[in-house]
Write a structure and sequence with these properties.
Blueprint lengths: L2 H13 L3 H8 E9 L4 E4 H15 L4 E10 L2 E11 L4 E2 L5 E2 L5 E13 L2 E9 L1 H7 L5
Parallel strand pairs: 1-8
Antiparallel strand pairs: 1-2, 3-4, 4-7, 5-6, 7-8
Helix pairs in contact: 1-2, 2-3
Length: 140
C-alpha cells in the first residue's frame, strides 16, 4: 500500500469503529501519536490505540475524511474534516471527566505522518480545540 492508501484505510477503519483493526493494519508497533492541542503523547501501539478509541468513546458516530494531502518521501500532511455527536464522556487533559453534551461538532484538523515499512510510525494531530469546545458549549 502507498502511504496515502494506509491513511485512507486508517480513516475508513476509524469511521467503521474498527479500532483494533486500525491498530493491527496501519500502526507500527512503536508508533507515537501526539495530540498537539492538549499536549498528550501516546507511545506504542497500546497507548496510541487507546487515544484513538477515546475519540470513538466520546463521539461514537464520528466520521472523517481527508480533504487535502501533501506527500514528500515518508512524510505526509493531511487536512481532514470530522463530524460527530458527543454522546460519551471525554477526558480532559488533567484526567477529569467531561459529561456528554449531546451536541454535534464539525471540526477540522491536520495530521502529520511519518511512515516506515508501510505503517504509521508517527502521527501528530493539530486540532482547533477551541472551535470544538465552543460547538460543545464548553468554551466561549
Amino acid at each position: 500500500m502507498t502511504n496515502a492508501e494506509v491513511s485512507e484505510r486508517g480513516i475508513k477503519l476509524f469511521n467503521e469503529d474498527k479500532i483494533d483493526e486500525w491498530a493491527n493494519t496501519v500502526a507500527a508497533d512503536d508508533i507515537t501519536f501526539e495530540d498537539m492541542a492538549i499536549g498528550h503523547k501516546a507511545s506504542g501501539k497500546e497507548e496510541s490505540t487507546a487515544y484513538v478509541q477515546s475519540w470513538k468513546t466520546a463521539f461514537p458516530d464520528m466520521v472523517g475524511q481527508c480533504n487535502n494531502r501533501i506527500e514528500s518521501g515518508n512524510t505526509m500532511v493531511e487536512e481532514c474534516s470530522w463530524t460527530g455527536t458527543n454522546t460519551g464522556e471525554m477526558t480532559a487533559p488533567d484526567g477529569s471527566k467531561i459529561p456528554p453534551t449531546g451536541k454535534t461538532v464539525n471540526i477540522k484538523n491536520c495530521f502529520i505522518y511519518e511512515f516506515e515499512n508501510g505503517k504509521i510510525k508517527s502521527m501528530k494531530n493539530y486540532l482547533d480545540m477551541m472551535s470544538m469546545m465552543g460547538q460543545l458549549g464548553l468554551a466561549g
